[in-house]
Amino acid sequence: MPPAPATGAAVVVSDPNAKKILTLRVEGSQRIEPETVLSYTRLRVGVAYNNELLDQAIKDLLASDLFADVSISGVESGNIVLRVRENPIINRVILEGNKRLKEDKITKEIKLKPRQIFTRTAVRQDVARIVELYRRQGRFAAAIEPKMVTLDQNRVDIIFEINEGPKSKVRQINILGNEVFSDKALRGQMATKEARLTTLLSSNTSYDQDRLAYDQQKMRQFYLTNGYADFRVTSAVAELTPDKKDFIITYVVEEGKRYKFGDVTVDSDIRDFDGKKVAAGLSIKKGDWYDAKKVEDTVDSLNQSAGLVGYAFADTNPEFNRDKDTLTMGINFHIAEAKRSYVERINVTGNTQTQDKVIRREIRLAEGDAFNSFQVKRSQDRINSLGYFQDKFEIKQSQGSAPDRVVLDANVEEKSTGELSLSVGYSSLENFIIQASITQRNFRGKGQELRASVNYSSYSKSVNLGFTEPYLFNKNIAIGGDLFRRDYNAFNFSGSDRQTTYTQVSTGFQIRAGVPLTEYWSLAGRYGLTYDQVGLNGQYFNSDGSCNVLAAGSYLCQAIGNRWTSSVGYSLIFDSLNSRLRPTAGQKFSLSQDFAGLGGDVRYVRTRVDATKYKNLGAGFIGSLHVEGGYIFSLEGKKPAGVDKIRITDRFYLGEPDFPGFDIRGVGPRVTRTPYTTDATGKQILVTDKNSIVDDALGGNKYYVGRLEVQIPLGSGARELGLRPSIYVQAGALWGVTKPVATANFPTTIDPVTGRATVQPQVTPVLDSTSGKPLFAVPATDGANAGLQTICAVGYSASATTPCVGSSVNNAVTSSTAPFLEQFLGNSGAPRISVGAGVNWNSPFGPLRIDIAYALKKVKGDDTKLVTFNVGTQF
Fold it and tell me: Could you say which architecture CATH assigns to the domain 19-86?
């Protein structure tokens, strides 16, 4: 800014030889009025002047930054003429050579702008600013050369020619004075890394002055957590190599002696706190190595404990008693006197769509209640679990109108809760998938959920409509319902072809209701009515319409039929998770039972238990333990031998995607049919090609699964991409069905010469579709009826009601089934175990999940699978 113009006050010149200004003129000014020029000086007509006053006038005009040159004439005559040359106006500011720094990042930092007055001082300052920007990026060799292009009308273009230079790396980090911990161990604590091949992709190898201070703090924190309370960094020097390409950083440290905790006491001025009892429960114990992090955690823990009993602004100060002779650090935690706090006001702001009541009903405190920090945290978790607002929402607390009053501020930032999507994807389970869905999780801003979806793939189709009201009539009662139609095709492989075995079409509805019992316990009830239509593919039927047991197996033939399932059920749920979307702490338990038989054709009791616990392991790692199990008990009467009381469509199934390492329905009871073939010597052997073996999963009436998983933290960039990797180990089993009756009994012959046993095809008579009697073929020697089929062993009859006429001896019509080995496998409660790693990715193509899991332990018959994935594309 130019200096303020002279005030025009009278100037007294004491020089006896001074002359008076007779006339005063300004020459050379173009944009600036002469009066404005004179206002920056103390020269006035009639004022006495000398050389000192004239010199000061020139200095004042140049200091205004408005003029490039100023001169004065007429000094001898008193007719003073001020000749000025104005600074030019900037036409453009041009940046050349900048590639690593975008133009907008530079232009917002520099002061020179178009239509401003050019000054060399401003140019020098902007050069310094640009250099500093490059140094922040670690480019200390950057050079800026300003140039000026003169234009007409006293205008100029300012050009900054930028030579960015290479990025200055940290070539070496030297540490002097350390004896207890190695250089490598200390460098590992630092954010700055030495430039090596192993750190080629790291951005922390560039020099950053702010990071230098951070690294000193990290070193100090490392020593303090290991007992070295006297540690200090006495010197930290970063030297730039002569070529300005690299830095060499040298730290000089003093480690000092290692301390242990001495006496640890708590001194409380709050009457509700008994210092001795509180001290006994602290994690810090006398004789342990001193750890500054434990001290900080203890302070936080004591403040939180005070918050639990209503002291929102409790202040805990650790008082240290260092004994250098015994090398102990005694600590007294002094809890200052505080008043019990009460909630004065709860402010809910930021919600534009969601109604206030939807948020307030999740807050576990009311205005006027005693403050409780646990309830504040619980309220925060419940609001986060709604999924209506941006992550990392916090309830802020501030001082109210009095020292014992607290104001809670719930400032939310809403996010989209409506989803309208059309997805096309590929699944290793169902090949190509088309899915269309519309969901509104906060319908009308009332927290209601409305959803509709349509799914179509080669082997399954479904339509689902649902609605949930979480607070019926503003009471804490949830109610909802679903209408659905699901078509499912079970499958197996014949050769390399995937073929349908049985089809299940389910149509029905379910209504649900739930009420909380306590803060964490809730009870939910439901009623469902489903009509199931189960059929087999056409290849499994005989010509008379009956089920071909040899082709389908008795277990599939038994499943055919239409039935109603009317069931009532309940779930008892405990939920203390800190988030229902992405939990990192807490636990959840549920016990569910469904009773089928309230009318309908099916009668059973299905029981399931499910429990999960999450724990923050530190450093961003999240551990979880999940266990579940189930059992179906039939209420139906006795069944024939080989027939299970629970139908195949009502059983549990286990495998991909719930059990990585195993294929879809790859765990548990199954029937396999392995065909026979012959080797090069003519010996009959079983085929080994997996795709030639028929494998029918039967499901089970009992199951259990346990999973131990650790989520691995990633950098901020990977988190922004939506990457969430994890490693896990899983164990489980599925069993408990009746062994089905053998499908076929193939005759075996023994070669009298070689002694080889050969399993022969099974030959069965073909029956007439009308009478059910065996069919015979008239031989070719019978002229009239040659080749025709009849129910007569001798002679011919065109129907079952006409007598056999003639004397021809007919041949029985038979069908032949190629021999196979049928085995009932996998019906064991022995644990199957797999280990694996997986990653969830919110990719541009839609949600993607990839698992690589290896089955460490399996039971004969289980189908394993190493890699599974599921991906969808949204458009």
Answer: Roll (3.10)
